[in-house]
Amino acid sequence: MKKQAIVITSLALILAACGNKSGTANTFVIQESADIPTLDPGVSYDTASGQFIENIYETLLTYDGSSLSKLKGLLATSWKADADGKTYTFALRDGVKFHSGNSFTCADAEYSFRRNLVTNSAESGNWFLSESLLGTGSNAKDDKSITWARIAAAVKCSNPSTLVFTLPKPDPAFLAKLAFTGQSIVDMKHAQKIGEWDGTEATWQQWVGKDLTDSALSKDPSGTGAYRMIKRDANSLAAQAFDGYWGGKPKIENVLYQKVSELAARQQALLKGDADIIEAGTRANVEQQLQGQKGITVLDELPNTSSFAIFMNENIGNKAALGSGKLDGKGIPANFFSDVNVRRGFNYAFDTVTYIRDVQQGKGKARTMLLPDTFPGYDAEVPTYSFDWAKAKDAFQQAFGGQLWNQGFTINASYRTGSEASQTAMEILKKNVESINPKFHVNLTAKQWSTMIQDANAGREVMLLNGWAPDYADPDNFLYTFYSSKGYYQPSSNFKDTQIDAWLDQARSITSANQRAALYSQVGQRAYDQAYYINVPAAAGIIAFRSGLEGLTLETYNPMRSFIGGTLWKDLSKS
C-alpha cells in the first residue's frame, strides 16, 4: 500500500504539471513495471527508454505502417544512393522546429550522427552505425585507426538542407539502421547550451566512449517529435503535445507514464479506467483477468519479432556473486559455464512444454535459433532442447570431471522486476535443476531493469533472462548480437566461438539470401551443439487496453516500435 500511495501522489503532481483540465479524453496513461534508464538517443538501447524517445525525437526514416521492410521519410523527404551503394544523399524536411524553438537544419543531423560515432559507448547501439560508416563497431579508444577526419568524412552536410553519408563499403541494411530510435536527431544548439559535446574536432576525444545514460540531454531533452517532456521522476514521466509540431498537433494532449511494479495494481488501474494501456503480464493474466471485462479491448495474434534467452556467463566478473568461488556446494568459480556439460545440463532442465502451457497458454513455439522464425535465415530443422531429467543428470555428472556432481553448487540468477513471464521461466529452471541433485541450489533475484542492464553489460550477471528486439529488420541484427564474440551481448555470455565468428563475418560480406541462410543454419546448429543459451519459447503477442483508445489495430501495429502498442502516440486518440 505504501508503494501505491507514492505512485498516486506522483501522478497527481504530474497531472497538475500538464494542466490537465479537459477530462480523460485529453490524457493517455501508460503503466508498466520498468524504469526509464535514459532519454538520450545517443545511448538508448532498451525498449523502456525507446518508447519515449521515439515520440519525443524523430529519425530521418521510419517504418511505413506495419511493414518491416518498407521505409518512408520522417525528417528526410527523399534520399538516393549512388551506383556503388557507398554514398547516400538525404534531402531534409524544411519548417521543422525543436521543442526549444530552434529550427531543424542539416547541422543538427550532422551533429547527431557524429556524436553517436564519437561516443559509441558500450551502453548504446551505435556499434552498428559505426560498422556501416567507419567499418568497425568499436570507438576510437578501442580502435586507434578511427580519427576525426574519418568521422567528419563519413557524415557531413553539403548544404543546410542536404546530408551525405559516405560508407567504406556497401551495406544493404544501412537505411533500416537509420530508422532505429537511437539514431534520432537531437537539437545541437540546445545540447551544446546545456553542456553536451560542442561538436568540434578540438574536444571530440574527450567524449569517446562516454556513457550518456544520465547525460544533460537525458535530463532536458529537446526533439522534433509530436510530444515534449514536461516532468520526470523516479516513478513517472509526463509528456505534452508539442504545439509547434510540423506534422500537426496530436489528438491526445497529455501522456503519463507510471512505473507500477505490482501486476495486480496495474490490472486494477486498467479495469477502473485509471490507465489506458498496461504491461499486462503473461497471456494467462490477460485471458483470465482482463479479456471479456467491460471496457477492455484485447488485441491478439500480434507478430513476435523478439528473441528471449537465459544467458550463462562463461567468465563472471563479479566476485560477490560467486559465493565461495569454488565448486564446494557454497558457490561457483567464475568459469562455471565454460564447461559445455554444465550448459547442456541447464538446457535439458528447462521445461519448454510447461512454459508454453502455463505462461503462453499453449500459444508458444520453441524456436531453434535466437532469430524470429519470420526472418530470412531461420532454420526450423535445427534441433532444440526439451526437458529431459535423465539427460540433464548425465550432463551434470560429466561436468568438471565429476566434481560438480559430487560437490554441488550454489548459483545466483536474475530476472526483471515485475516481469511475471521472466520470473516463471526462472522458477521452472530452478525447480528442475534443484530436483536433480539436492546439492544443487539456484537463488533467484528480481532486479530493476536499469540495474540489470548495467550489470549485464559489465559482465557481472551470472545467469539472467534477457531478450532482443530488432534494431533493424535483418537476421544479422539478431545472430551477430547473440552469437558473435564481438556482438552486443558478449559481456553477458562471454564465449568466443571462432567457427561461428567466421560464418557470421562471411554472411556480412555477401548479398545472396540463399548463401547467407546456409551460413546462418550452420550457426544455429553449432549454437545448439554447444548449448550457448537456453532458448525461451516465443509466443504470439497480446495486449490489453481501454476500449476508448483508438488507433491500435493489427494493421497499425509494428513490432519495430518500442511502445507496447506498436504505434506512435501521435496516431492515437481517445473517445
UniProtKB/TrEMBL annotation:
Recorded superkingdom = Bacteria
Its GO biological process terms?
peptide transport
Listed name of the protein:
ABC transporter substrate-binding protein
Pfam families reported for this sequence: SBP_bac_5
GO terms assigned for molecular function: peptide transmembrane transporter activity
Annotated GO CC locations: ATP-binding cassette (ABC) transporter complex; periplasmic space
Enumerate the UniProt keywords alphabetically: Signal
Domain Solute-binding protein family span(s) in chain numbering: 71-489
What PROSITE patterns does the annotation carry? PROKAR_LIPOPROTEIN, SBP_BACTERIAL_5
Family note: Belongs to the bacterial solute-binding protein 5 family.
